[in-house]
Here is the input.
Amino acid sequence: MMRRSHFPLSWLILFSFAVALLTSQSFAGIPVSLKSSADNTVCIGCHDNPKLKKELADGTAILLHVDSETLAHSVHSGRTCTDCHTDIKEIPHRHAIERVNCSRCHYVEEIEGVRMPKKPAEYRESVHRAALAAGNQKAPTCQNCHGSHDIVLASDPKSPVHRENVPQTCGACHIDIYSDYRESIHGRALEEGNRDVPVCTDCHGEHSIKSPKNPASSVYATNVPGTCSRCHASERLEEKYKLPKHRVETYRESYHGIANKFGSLTVANCASCHRAHDIRPSSDPKSSVHKANLPRTCGKCHKGANQNFARGKIHVIITRKEESLLYYVSNGFKWLTILTMTALVGHITLDLAAKYRKRRGEH
Ligand code: HEC
Ligand code: HEC
Ligand code: HEC
Ligand code: HEC
Ligand code: HEC
Ligand code: HEC
Ligand code: HEC
Ligand code: HEC
Ligand code: HEC
Here is the structure.
């Protein structure tokens, strides 16, 4: 910076502070306490310099320019700089500034009369938080998804968490999945402006995201059918997009569907056949459920599945007896459950009755 012929006043101030700092170990800066966002000028005084930057050890630099307008147009327009940068208490401030902790405010019920949305608290239980706690620096904090000074409401198309922008925001880290999703029926429809198709957060949640291996995850094997059903059991959507009907119902009545409901993790759920992200109509030759690809799709689990094996209709309506095997399997399960429950309730009733009689006899 010294090479430049003339430099702004703020640099001069900074320079004098720096000299003061170097010459005196015990130098204490001027205490700052920002009472309202109007006082942000104290910080802006230096940080509105577009050239202000900090060289990092690896030779790269981060820009330290903060446009006061950006914050003023964000949801945090009423905040002071030190509301978020809480460890800055004097000027000049120390060098290693802590990362901003959004949770400080966003886990409370309300701030100065403004009610806080409750949802971010779910982040605590998420796979991302767990990964971060385990030392994975690539896992997202609030600011990775939301930004910092430029945070606007999710309903604003400029927000990185606005519905249409969610796949890109998640995709910045989950690149392969993003590219599969973009090519899928859901992803392509989204790009064409369809608002009925799912983005990442419809299937995964936003703050509560969990590993598919976690039974509490919306994409855990036994929860997948419920997650797809939110839309695919809807007659309105079936009509609107001329989708083949009864896909969910027929799955639920199939061998796979029933066993899945009973907690089997090995039978097929919707995503085992359709895939999770690269979902395509069966007419698309790249679809995992295109006729030509079915032997491979079923073959993941049914060793030696050939065209013949896969030919049996999948989404069949099995209230009719013609689909005999499936019909009996599904009815078998139904009756087995009913009989077991009846026997259990009967047993408990008899047991209670016996105990009751015994007690009365003793008194
Ligand atoms: C006298 C000029 C000056 C003032 C006033 C000033 N800063 Fe800074 N700020 C700097 C400089 C220079 C750096 C780079 C420091 C370094 O290289 O570590 C910086 C860095 C920062 C950083 C980034 C730190 C990091 O390590 O990434 C934050 C955040 C910050 N300032 C916030 C504030 C806030 C909030 C205020 C108001 C309370 C403020 N600054 C006031 C000059 C200033
Ligand atoms: C809503 C909280 C919030 C407020 C208010 C806020 N900041 Fe920040 N600031 C952040 C976050 C988040 C970062 C990104 C780094 C991090 O996560 O700590 C950041 C980063 C910075 C940086 C480092 C450069 C960068 O962009 O990464 C500077 C400098 C800075 N802030 C200055 C300011 C100044 C000056 C103000 C007041 C005008 C201010 N901040 C108000 C949240 C805030
Ligand atoms: C000092 C407390 C404070 C901190 C720290 C803070 N916020 Fe906020 N945040 C608020 C307040 C207050 C509002 C409500 C503003 C309003 O509606 O006037 C808000 C609003 C929001 C909203 C919009 C919510 C809505 O529905 O109105 C989002 C998103 C948000 N903050 C994200 C963040 C993120 C991400 C961080 C960290 C970078 C952060 N906040 C840090 C106080 C804070
Ligand atoms: C993995 C990405 C991700 C992370 C990490 C994340 N969020 Fe969010 N957040 C979202 C998405 C996506 C939405 C939008 C939900 C919607 O459309 O209603 C959202 C919504 C919000 C809202 C409501 C915004 C509004 O305008 O209604 C607040 C407040 C919020 N987040 C705060 C936080 C805080 C605080 C953290 C950290 C504890 C955090 N978020 C972490 C993705 C994330
Ligand atoms: C800043 C990078 C980043 C962003 C943004 C991000 N993630 Fe992640 N995500 C990670 C990392 C890192 C992991 C942990 C991977 C691990 O532990 O194997 C992870 C884990 C996951 C997992 C669990 C994977 C598993 O196999 O257990 C899911 C699901 C997930 N993220 C979905 C999302 C969604 C949906 C979004 C957007 C709302 C998102 N992520 C945004 C980095 C990110
Ligand atoms: C239609 C619902 C749906 C949508 C939309 C969706 N996912 Fe998934 N996702 C799933 C299912 C189901 C699984 C579990 C798949 C499995 O177990 O093989 C999964 C698994 C994952 C995993 C962990 C397993 C892996 O393959 O690494 C990550 C990470 C993930 N999704 C991220 C994303 C991201 C990022 C997006 C948006 C670009 C997204 N998902 C969109 C349903 C969805
Ligand atoms: C948020 C609602 C929603 C969710 C959740 C959802 N879908 Fe979809 N899906 C749609 C819509 C809407 C279409 C029609 C898109 C179009 O044709 O433009 C569609 C299309 C499809 C198609 C192609 C149908 C055809 O013939 O064109 C398949 C296959 C499909 N989805 C499977 C799934 C699976 C499997 C899941 C769960 C892992 C799932 N979907 C979750 C809304 C959803
Ligand atoms: C055992 C594999 C398998 C499972 C499990 C499965 N499907 Fe399918 N699905 C198929 C096949 C094969 C087709 C194409 C032929 C047909 O329609 O029967 C198909 C067709 C569809 C279609 C129409 C798309 C088209 O282009 O033909 C939708 C929508 C659909 N399935 C949704 C679902 C949903 C939702 C679930 C879970 C509730 C599910 N499927 C479970 C194999 C499966
Ligand atoms: C994720 C693994 C998985 C996939 C993919 C899968 N299945 Fe299954 N399926 C099973 C399991 C496990 C059973 C339980 C019986 C067994 O072990 O064979 C089963 C049972 C069945 C049954 C009834 C019992 C029987 O053996 O006759 C039929 C029919 C069936 N599958 C057809 C298919 C077809 C057709 C496909 C491809 C469109 C397919 N499955 C894809 C795991 C899968």
Observations:
- The chain has 19 helices and six strands.
- Residues 331-363 form one domain.
- The chain has four domains: 1-98, 104-209, 212-317, 331-363.
